[in-house]
Design goal:
This protein is of the alpha+beta class and about 200 residues long. It is built from eight helices and four strands. A hairpin with a 5-residue loop joins β3 and β4.
Length: about 200
């Protein structure tokens, strides 16, 4: 297999997922800043959406989208289970992964793209600079929504580390570097974030 990696929180989700599973896959570095992902051969042969990451399988088939790649890796390397060992656990993980993605990760990322990241992204996709501050506020709303829900548990989806934790950590860690830190009032999320940051996998880029 080959993993097409670049800067950014999306590839890092998969890298963290692999690190937690102890998986090592040969990497191909994609120059996101230089726009390599938006040019042939990458956007022809690898991902027509022009995004990273991508995972090329042994048979040459290419998977894109973070959750799809992680789902595949979970099935191929089931231990430790990071999406769930039972139907109920898998459904619960998918539910929480979807929640944190929609409520926090997506608005945080677009808030960056439409503000600090505008010079990089404006030539590549439709950007709405007027929406940037509202999107950043929406991400903080999502953090405040999550905060009381995890007060009594160690991880987002329950008692065990899951894809939901990995995804949210990658994006909040990115947010901290682009002017979107966690509101200090969200004490439960802050404690969770510090626990995640102390894991060995957190050193993975």
């Amino acid at each position: 297999m080959k993993f097409y990696n670049s800067v950014g929180p999306n590839p890092r989700v998969v890298k963290l997922f692999m690190a937690e599973k102890g998986i090592e896959i040969a990497e191909v570095s994609v120059d996101l800043r230089g726009g390599e992902n938006r040019r042939a051969p990458y956007n022809v042969d690898i991902n027509p959406a022009g995004q990273t990451p991508a995972l090329e399988l042994d048979n040459g088939h290419v998977l894109t989208e973070v959750t799809a790649i992680c789902e595949y890796l979970e099935e191929r390397f089931p231990d430790p289970a990071l999406i769930g060992a039972t139907r109920e656990a898998r459904a619960n993980t998918r539910m929480w992964t979807r929640r944190v993605d929609l409520k926090i990760c997506e608005p945080l990322t677009n808030g960056f793209r439409f503000a600090e990241g505008l010079p990089l992204f404006e030539p590549r996709l439709r950007c709405l600079p007027e929406a940037a501050e509202g999107l950043k506020a929406t991400a903080q709303d999502g953090i405040r929504w999550l905060d009381p829900l995890i007060a009594e548990r160690e991880f987002i989806a329950g008692d065990a580390l899951s894809l939901a934790d990995i995804m949210l950590f990658a994006f909040l860690d990115f947010g901290a570097t682009v002017g979107q830190p966690i509101n200090p009032a969200a004490t439960n999320v802050q404690r969770w974030y510090e626990r995640m940051k102390s894991r060995p996998s957190a050193q993975t880029n």
